[in-house]
Design brief:
Shape: globular
Radius of gyration: 14 Å
Strand content: 15-25%
Largest sheet: 3 strands, antiparallel
Number of helices: 5
Distance between the termini: 41 Å
CATH class: Alpha Beta
Strand order of the largest sheet: 1-2-3
Bound molecules: FE2/S2 (inorganic) cluster
CATH topology: Sufe protein. Chain: A
Order of helices and strands: HEEEHHHH
Length: 125
């Protein structure tokens, strides 16, 4: 049902936890299942220097958050904002159709974190 890549990220999640001294934070929930994902970031000079996640959710949500953090780490804020759930699913080599909604959480959490940063530091974006 799940690709090896999904299982790898589920069994060995990357960047799990909370960034120390984070300056961006986004928490989003999935209305369909009630699962919750939180992303924290340290953004400096328009670049996502560090990003970590905490996911209270299913295995697909854990795997998508894990790979999404790897995909935006070191990227500019604009590049991070451009990350789509489709790109995340492709990077995971696919998700079962009934699990596609789980990947939306990662995209939304990244966007919510960056939005919180921009609210706090409008001059630095
Ligand atoms: Fe809730 Fe996957 S079932 S995020």
């Amino acid at each position: 049902m799940y690709t090896d890549c999904v299982m790898d990220h589920f069994n060995n999640p990357r960047n799990m936890g909370e960034v120390e001294g984070y300056n961006a934070e986004g928490t989003v929930g999935n209305a369909k299942c009630g699962d919750i994902m939180r992303m924290t970031m340290r953004i400096e000079d328009g670049v996502v220097k560090d990003v970590m996640f905490k996911t209270f959710g299913c295995g697909a949500a854990v795997a998508t958050s894990s790979i999404a953090t790897e995909m935006v780490k070191g990227k500019t804020v604009e590049e991070a904002l451009a990350l789509t759930n489709k790109a995340v699913v492709e990077a995971l080599e696919g998700l079962p159709p009934q699990k596609m909604h789980c990947s939306v959480l990662a995209e939304e959490a990244i966007k919510a974190a960056i939005a919180s940063y921009r609210e706090k530091t409008p001059d630095l974006t």
